[in-house]
Amino acid sequence: MTIYYKLVDRVPVECDMLEWAAFFETADRRVAQDTLANGITVSTVFLGIDHRILGDGPPLLFETMVWSGGIGSPAWVSLDMRRCSTWDEAVAQHAEELDAVSGNAS
Fold first, then answer.
1. In what order do the strands lie in the sheet with 40-46?
2. pLDDT tens digits for 54-90?
3. The whole model's pTM is what?
4. Burial status of residue 68 (CB atoms within 10 A of its CB: 0-12, 13-18, 19 or more)
5. With contact defined as beta carbons under 8 Å apart, do 39 and 66 qualify?
């Protein structure tokens, strides 16, 4: 079972641990990040390691987190976290979370 992945033109490609480590040294893994005026941040990144722990399905390689307050501050609060498998899913997931916290959800 492959757990390591690198991005090639926004497509996750299986690789070994050494390739993964070399990729992570210089890679820009951010899909998107937005901070709203109310202090809520939505951030989506490529993880590069399959985070599917239970069940079958495609590897979970991208993560969107929503939080308020600055990371590391006493006021930091995690509000939501979701994972997905592809760059396009990650872009859509980021937009959904951003709409939800900005009051634009339908």
1. 30-35, 40-46, 62-68, 77-84
2. 878 999 999 999 988 766 666 667 788 999 999 999 9
3. 0.88
4. middle
5. no
